[in-house]
From TrEMBL:
The keyword Cytoplasm does not apply. Keywords: Signal. It comes from Actinoplanes italicus. Residues 123-262 form the SsuA/THI5-like domain. Residues 1-20 form the signal peptide. The lineage of its organism: Bacteria, Bacillati, Actinomycetota, Actinomycetes, Micromonosporales. It comes from the Bacteria. This is NitT/TauT family transport system substrate-binding protein.
Length: 449
């Protein structure tokens, strides 16, 4: 299966090169875009943008767009330094490395020109362990092997979380691996935990192959992804850069207005389950999409620099020269697709993102919004009683607010309330502090009346 998929990918890539070559011979200039299809926080500058054809529409046939897909930001940076990619998208740590490498020469300078997806608390990065792992807390990783992509935000999350838990970097052995390699290593038992960025943790948990050990939202450090351009290219082709950002706004608007359809489009293009894509990119999703590089994001990037210096992948960077969102289109509306309406089960308004849940029934192209986790439980029970199959149910963690799969969460019943937690440890901590409450599995939750 993997060989067949690889062959198909190579065939498509080769076919794309042939078409681009024909158009180049016809005098149509190329613009090369590097993106990461499976890093779904960048879809508005990558997968969704490509699938909807917004950039080609904005360029009006004046340029031939060549799309290059990568697993991480590092090869995109390498290609940009070589002048072979004009515009790219990647996470915050790779963005900083990109900017620092670019500033080594006037010919290679780059600029971060927009944000794609972000989470203000850091929940786009997660530490997971195998489903049957006895490790229940970060402290339990002492002396064990953890896979991550060194220099990524997921690596930074892990190191900061370790320190917060009272461990040092040397208390665990870190294996520097690409996300898919780390995922295989976790499944085979060659590593004890995996710290990675979206969408790998959600994918492994959705498949039933892993459980969350540490919710990145508990760190409360913003994480973001963004768009970067070669400075020379921006100077030479400002019309293309402006068209790209306008097209990115088109993709963002589409995602805001049609989050479920957008998730299905990205799922089809990437092979990821739509339920996983929607977890991150859907209404009230873990990721919020908006283009401006807000002050808190600039501050977060500045705070990331010392860590990257400490691991030897960054010597320094002039952030003022690197970060520039002056070409971002004005307006754009309220960031994100937000759950709203009336909860049909509880008869109450859906207004608070920190509480609102969502039910996606099989065969439906719309979802059911619920006011809070307790109402979601009632909706799930009602769906089950009527024989309806549930495609996915989403609910925010009671402490961090991180949106997660309801059936993969650990629940606590506290009186008449039902409270979900991304990690079992958080659920037990809450229950210990609330006498009379009890920890429930999802099966207990939906089967008890």
């Amino acid at each position: 299966m993997r060989r067949a998929a690889l062959a198909g990918t190579l065939l498509l890539a080769l076919s794309g090169c042939t078409v681009a070559g024909d158009r180049a011979e016809a005098g149509v200039e190329q613009v090369v875009v590097g993106y990461q299809s499976k890093t779904i926080n960048t879809v508005t500058a990558g997968t969704l943008l490509r699938a909807k054809g917004f950039l080609e529409q904005r360029l009006g046939g004046k340029y031939d767009v060549v799309w290059q897909d990568y697993d991480t930001g590092a090869p995109i940076t390498a290609q940009m330094m070589a002048g072979k990619i004009d515009i790219g998208s990647m996470g915050d740590y790779p963005l900083l490395i990109n900017g620092a490498r670019g500033q080594q020469s006037e010919q290679t300078r780059t600029r971060m020109i927009a944000v794609t997806g972000y989470n203000r608390r850091g929940a786009l990065n997660t530490v997971v362990v195998a489903r049957d792992s006895p490790v229940a807390t970060l402290s339990g990783l002492r002396g064990k092997v953890v896979s991550t992509s060194v220099g990524s935000a997921a690596h930074g999350l892990f190191v900061q979380a370790l320190r917060k838990a009272g461990l040092t970097d040397t208390d665990v052995k870190v294996e520097n691996q690409q996300p898919q390699v780390g995922a295989s290593a976790l499944q085979s038992g060659n590593v004890d935990a995996l710290s990675q960025f979206v969408a790998w943790p959600g994918l492994l948990v959705h498949r039933g192959e892993a459980k969350v050990l540490y919710d990145g939202g508990a760190l409360e450090v913003p994480t973001l992804h963004g768009t970067v351009v070669r400075q020379q290219y921006a100077d030479q082709r400002p019309d293309v850069v402006k068209a790209f950002l306008a097209a990115q706004q088109d993709a963002t608007d589409f995602l805001w207005r049609h989050p479920l359809e957008a998730a299905e489009i990205v799922a089809k293009a990437t092979g990821l389950p739509a339920e996983v894509v929607y977890l991150y990119n859907g209404a009230n999703g873990i990721a919020t999409f908006d283009l401006p590089i807000r002050p808190e994001f600039r501050a977060a990037l500045e705070q990331d620099v010392p860590f990257l210096k400490s691991i030897g992948v960054l010597q320094g960077i002039d952030l003022d020269a690197f970060v520039d969102d002056s070409l971002v289109p004005a307006g754009g509306g309220t960031p994100g697709a937000v759950l709203s309406g009336t909860d049909a089960i509880c008869g109450t308004a859906v207004t608070d993102p920190a509480l609102a849940g969502e039910l996606w029934l099989a065969g439906e192209n719309t979802t059911i919004a619920t006011t809070d986790p307790t109402c979601l439980v009632k909706a799930v029970r009602a769906a089950k009683a009527s024989g309806r199959q549930i495609r996915a149910a989403y609910v925010p963690d009671a402490t961090t607010g991180t949106r997660w799969f309801a059936d993969k969460s650990t629940w606590v019943q506290d009186g008449a309330r039902f409270l979900p937690f991304v990690t079992e440890a958080a659920a037990k901590t809450f229950s210990t502090g609330h006498p009379g409450s009890r920890v429930l599995s999802y099966d207990q939750l939906v089967n008890e009346s």
